[in-house]
Amino acid sequence: MPDVAYAIIGGGVIGRAIALAIEQRGLAGDVVVIERCPQDRTENQSSRNSGVIHAGIYYRKAERPLKARLCVEGNELLYEFCREHRVPHAKTGKLVVATDAREEGYLHGIANIARENDVPGVRMIGADEVRSMEPNIRATAALYAPSSGVVDAAAYLAALRRASSAHNLFATEVVGIADRGDEFEIQPHCAGKTEAFTVRWVISAAGDRGDDIARLLDPTSEVRLVPARGEAAKFYSGKRADLALGGRNIYPVPSGYYPDGTRAEVSYDEFQRLLGEGSITETVGVHLTPTLDDEGCIAKTTTIGPAIRAGIEIDDLASGLYPPEYFHKGVSEFFPSVRVTDIELHQAGIQSRMQGQLDWHLAKDKRHPRFIHALGIDSPGMTGSLAIGRYVVGELLATPA
Ligand SMILES: Cc1cc2nc3c(=O)[nH]c(=O)nc-3n(C[C@H](O)[C@H](O)[C@H](O)COP(=O)(O)OP(=O)(O)OC[C@H]3O[C@@H](n4cnc5c(N)ncnc54)[C@H](O)[C@@H]3O)c2cc1C
Fold this sequence. Notes:
With 401 residues, this protein is α+β, with helices and mostly antiparallel strands. It has two domains: 4-47 and 156-224 and 358-397, 3-Layer(bba) Sandwich (FAD/NAD(P)-binding domain); 91-147 and 227-352, D-Amino Acid Oxidase, Chain A, domain 2, CATH 3.30.9. The chain is 28% helix and 30% strand. It has nine helices and 22 strands. The strands form five sheets. Strands 1, 2, 9, 10, 11, 12, 13, 21 and 22 form a nine-stranded mixed beta sheet that branches. Helix 1 runs parallel beside helix 5, helix 1 (13-25) packs across helix 9 and helix 2 crosses helix 9. The radius of gyration is 21 Å and the shape is globular. The site of flavin-adenine dinucleotide has 40 residues, from helix 1, strand 10, strand 20 and helix 9.
């Protein structure tokens, strides 16, 4: 008999949501979550994200079936979880704003995806309605998604940990994995010592290091995660009326960038075509996100970001950060009253995508069917986390190995 039934490598929102889903499904056996950082050290993606509860309007089922489905399902589950576990959050709604006719074409394209994905309540609104909702925002039209919101990401991660009775190993790094036939041998390294225990199922939810884990299992693995840093800035609106916002998430239309860094100024159909063939990388754009105060009410600080930087090391959170001017340029077209001097740098986080893939990778290992990989869980992974947990358990773990 193995020592443990399920070992989850990684104590971010994905690992912890999977631990909770195992328990909710009533699967028999102990669950251990192994996390390399000490408790409450916040270096992972789950603690350094923008805190947006996404509605699920950007992901076409054809190219990104998991994001399309699990973001929408996860959105509902996350609100339910936050209510039940008293995690500070707010269903703020979101505006994606267009500033000219080309961008309005993007709104129609996104509205079609929202319909296809069954995102509730999404509608197009005109310039007058935008002005009445957000007098300081300049737009020719917008798409309104009422199910978008914000959550205190660190509080959500902590509540997930408390919600499951999984055994937690902190400051413990998995440094070896061996398939012994009916069980795996896991080698955790903690306080200078490497020990070993056996386990029947392993779930790798190691965030940016998921490809390292794949290589521990199989040194010939060709899985490669490509990290990108998301940098955020912020401003305080308490002293100037022209900076005040209505507490909504406000986004420009998405942008695509060619490998040399130039922006693809193309129609939405062409944008989707270039994205599908891998010629551009997509960002949802530098946007405005309300923050929450200690009581869970919308605060007077708004974050701006993320600005995405590719080509960095996975632990480089600080070198060569974008200056306030970059964030100002990103939002001034639709938020003209903000000045460079209003903006200060806030935080950075790193997320990774699987090379050459737009969707998340949730699958059993081809050669080791009781080993499950959660790879490239980039945004909106926090929103999707509870649905990802259920998917991994219901469609991968609870099916024959
Ligand atoms: C800047 C930024 C903004 C984002 N904004 C949003 C947003 O607004 N909304 C949204 O829904 N999503 C957002 N995301 C995405 C979201 O944060 C991620 O999808 C999600 O947090 C991924 O969780 P995870 O558990 O896979 O990874 P992580 O949170 O990184 O957790 C993985 C864990 O594995 C541990 N680990 C790694 N290797 C080992 C090992 N060998 N042994 C033991 N432990 C190990 C790490 O220490 C880490 O704690 C954003 C991400 C970033 C970076």
